[in-house]
């Protein structure tokens, strides 16, 4: 009779279903990967996005259906901090600036880039962070419906006990 040795190799990171998992549970590399793939997709479509033949709505639909899904692949499991949110917003603003083009100043007659506030006014669709949070809620809701309504408290965040007295511990 043969004996089987069960030994596992300890690794720092590995790829599972297209997602890189690390022993530090860091999501930064995954966000960098998504932005890198999104940049590649953006550069492939750059001529379409600045073309005068397509309408602004068509360009926004191209962004929404081709570029954003590439960037947000696997984002249901991301827990973002403010730095990563800013990186995603910078990427989105760069694509939107390409779609809407520069703005002509009436006084000087020169061209200037659109500021973030103007981009938000022109682009009425939800931003990339809101879309990501919507995906997270949709993904969590699927798990919640499997087990019934009794487990929804974990998503809402209602606690059964009172908070302890004193200053909270630093995290």
Characterization of the model:
By secondary structure, the chain is mostly helical. The protein has a domain at 23-128. It is built from seven helices and four strands, in the order ββααααββααα. The chain has helices spanning 28-44, 46-49, 56-71, 82-100, 116-122, 128-147, 153-156; strands at residues 13-16, 19-22, 103-104, 111-112. The strands form two sheets. Strands 1-2 form a two-stranded antiparallel ribbon. Strand 3 and strand 4 (111-112) form a beta hairpin. Helix 1 runs antiparallel to helix 3, helix 1 packs parallel to helix 4 (82-100) and helix 3 (56-71) runs antiparallel to helix 4 (82-100). The chain starts with 12 loop residues before the first strand and ends in a 15-residue tail after the last helix. The relative contact order is 0.09.
Annotation keywords:
two-stranded antiparallel sheet, 51% helix, two-stranded antiparallel ribbon
What helical percentage do the residues reach?
40-55%
Whole-angstrom Rg: 22 Å
Morphology: extended
Q: Major β-sheet, in short?
A: 2 strands, antiparallel
Number of helices: 7
| Beta-strand fraction estimate | 5-15%
How are strands sequenced across the largest beta sheet?
1-2
Secondary-structure element sequence? EEHHHHEEHHH
Averaged pLDDT, please? 80
The count of strands amounts to: 4
Secondary structural class: mainly alpha
Distance between the termini: 52 Å
Spans of at least 5 consecutive residues whose pLDDT stays below 50 are none
Oligomer: single chain
